[in-house]
Amino acid sequence: MKENLQHFEIVFVSSDKDQASFESYFQTMPWLAVPYGDPTIKELAKHFDVRGIPSLVILGPDGKTVTKQGRNLINLYQENAYPFTEARLELLERQMDEEAKNLPRSAFHSGHHHELNLVSLGPFICCVCDEQGSYWAYQCLECGYEVHPKCVRPVDPPNNT
């Protein structure tokens, strides 16, 4: 996003239960915030139909809602989701699908004893490198083990004789 040099603003709207929690959390943030306890907070939550936290609502320069799924999009595509337009998201999805065409549909991995299947999923933590991943992963359908495609160390399937 830094390369784009596009101007945008982040405003923290807290639903913390007390002032101390708000201040503790807010001091870690470099952006603006609606003051703790401001009645606008409830109005904004209702207006944007916020049902869970954390949430990220993306507004355009005209103040209109671009998406209420900002958090999910950031988790899935990281900074590449910007500017959150339908065209941008369709492009990212096509790119991810194109990358997956060259991946095997299943694999056996040296760090796990079950077969791993290529799946498309939201954010996950890779069991090999402990870094967050998104979209395509190899997952064990028996125990939920998940790994980035780049972290799979292929081995031959176990001999079932």
UniProtKB/TrEMBL annotation:
| Keyword terms, alphabetized | Metal-binding, NAD, Oxidoreductase, Repeat, Zinc
* GO MF, one example: protein-disulfide reductase [NAD(P)H] activity
Please give the PROSITE patterns that the UniProt record associates with this protein. ZF_DAG_PE_2 (PS50081)
Matching InterPro entries: C1-like_sf, DC1, Nucleoredoxin-like, PKC_DAG/PE, Thioredoxin-like_fold, Thioredoxin-like_sf
Its EC number(s): 1.8.1.8
- Catalysed reaction(s)? [protein]-dithiol + NAD(+) = [protein]-disulfide + NADH + H(+); [protein]-dithiol + NADP(+) = [protein]-disulfide + NADPH + H(+)
Q: Which SMART domains match?
A: C1
Q: Where is the Phorbol-ester/DAG-type domain?
A: 111-159
Pfam families registered for this protein in UniProt: C1_2, Thioredoxin_8
Q: What is this protein called?
A: protein-disulfide reductase
Which organism encodes this protein? Answer: Opuntia streptacantha
Q: What is the lineage of its organism?
A: Eukaryota, Viridiplantae, Streptophyta, Embryophyta, Tracheophyta
